[in-house]
Design goal:
The protein has helices at 25-35, 38-42, 59-67, 82-93, 164-172, 175-187, 192-195, 203-224, 226-235, 238-251, 257-270; strands at 49-52, 71-75, 98-106, 109-122, 132-142, 147-155. It is of the alpha+beta class. Helix 3 links the parallel strand 1 and strand 2. The longest helix has 22 residues, at 203-224. It is globular, with a radius of gyration of 24 Å. It starts with 24 loop residues before the first helix and ends in a 9-residue tail after the last helix.
Amino acid sequence: KLKKVIALFQEFITNKDGTDKQDCEVNSTKRWLDTFDILKFLKKKYKIIILGDDLYSRYPMIQKIIDKGHSFILVCKTTSHKALYRTVETYKQTKSVKTFTTTRIHNGKKQTLTYSWINEILLNGNKEDNIEVNWCELIIVNSDGKRTNTFSFVTDLKITQNNIEEIIEAGRTRWKIENENNNTLKTKGYNLEHNFGHGDKYLSQTLCSLNILTYLFHTIQEFVDEQYIYLRSLAGTRMEFFEELRAVSTYIVFKNFESMLAWMIKSRQTKKNIDITPY
C-alpha cells in the first residue's frame, strides 16, 4: 500500500464576484467536483471514492457526488444525524443490524473490533431532501473492556462482511490527507500557513498554487527519481534536505537539478571536496 498523499488541483475558499454570501469549504468542494476534469479520465480505469468528514455527509453534497458519477465514504456522527441514528437504534433493537467481531494486537495490547452495518437506510428520516445510504460503524474496545474509539460512516458502496473492514479502513485513512499533505505543507519546510496572506487579488493564490505544485513534484520524485529517493534517505528530515539544497544552490551553479543531486550524493559518499567544474 502507498504511504504518500498526492496533492491534486486545489480549489480556494474565497468569495466570487457577485456573491454576497460567505464562501465555505462545502461550496468550494462542489466547485472542485465541477471543474476537476482529470477525474473523467481516471474514472475510465479507477473507481473514484470521495472521502470527507462529517461536514460533507449531507444530502446536497452526497447528491452532488453521485451526480458526478463518483462514490463516497463520509464520516457520519451521531450528534449531527439524529434521524439516521434513531433508525439505526430501531434496527439494533430488532437485531436487524449485521455485525461481526474480530481481535488484533495493537501496540502490544489486545483489542476487540466490532463491525456493524446497514444497507439502504434513509439519511434524513422522512424529510423531503432525503437519500438512501449504507451505514457502517467500528467500535474498538481494549483488553480491560474500555471503549477506545468509535468510527461511523455512510457510503454508497454496498457493504458486506467481505468488504466492511476495507471500507472503514478507507474512511479512516482520510487523516493521511490532513497529516501527510496539509500538515507537511504547514510544518515541514513549505511554510504554507505563514507566507501567503499577501496581495489584494490573486497574488496569495498564485504563491499558494506554486507551493502545492512544488510539493506535488517532490512527491512524484519520491516515487520515481532514484537519485532523489537515495539522497532523501541520507539527508534526514525534509527540512534538513531543503536546507542542504538551499546552501548548495547558493554557492554553486549546476547545469540542472539532476547534476546537483549527483554532486550532493557523491560528496556525501566520499566526504571530500568534489571538483565542481563538470557541474
